[in-house]
Amino acid sequence: MSSEATAVARTKPALPAAYAEDIQRRKERNAISTAIRGTQWGKEVSQDTVRAVSEYAYRTGIDPVRHIEVLGGRIYLNADYYREKGAPLIKAGVVRATEIQHIAADARLDAMAEKPGPLQEWAAGERDTRIMLRIKYGVPEGAKAAAICRITMADGSVLDGVNWVGGSSKRDPVGDSEPTKTAESRAERRAWRRLVEVQPALLPDAAKAESVASEINESIPDAEVTPHGELPVRPAVRPLMIADVGDDIARAPEVVSFLSEAQLELAEKLLKSSVWSDAERAEFREDFTRTQSGARVAFDRLIKDTKARKEARKPESLRPIPGDEMDFQDDSDLGEDN
After folding, report:
1. pTM of this prediction?
2. What pLDDT score does 252 carry?
């Protein structure tokens, strides 16, 4: 055979457009996940949360490194995002001003309020004002830092946002490293979010992004229910896959599965084997969507039984000696029949 003919024979057929597009989407999401792991908060969350944030960033086009934070297992747009989106409103005069007021307890104020001098009256008044505001907004006395952000609109109306760092048992590595800066930025973010709630037409991109965040947050379990701040396995959406019969590519229904994407891909590869009937394939796929424990049991059984059924089809002389370990590292012989 000529070299030209050999080259043609070795050329792989082009993937169907839908399948190629899905592969590209996966590459883009993987790149986003890698960027997320490089952030400070990204080092503290589970892989399932990284996937959720990656999906969010992919759908909204928001930079996960510059504009997203994850707190308590929930996705939030940070203050930098709102500053950038709000800047045109300030320039146009729609927003007249924004200001920050600190309201955390401060031992220096207490000392100044008790010491006679020119600043004693001011310190006593500032201390009492802070106490009043902490009571009003429910800020814990043990907070390391606390702030109010006020956004004043052109008509004189004021929207405020309050947030703090510390004062609870929740893990907050970002806040603990820079409590004052973090309290300010989170209060600012909360004030801008209130503006979006009241007048979404002023910041339509932010309104849409907050809506998508609420949707995706519903699928992320609360980080507080598991030890060390790790999240339980998050149900995944079954990915695009090759149809069981024929060469056409078919998009599977958006079925929620309790397996990871990697497990689902392997499961679909195993289910294409002719050792399984259509009824058995349907049963396995249903098991993957019922409960997390049931999905894991079904997945393990699928691997074991696929191997066993394929071995049973081999001539007796080619079967492994009883008691030998089966090597599951290489799954090349578990998928579709050649």
Report:
1. 0.55
2. 34
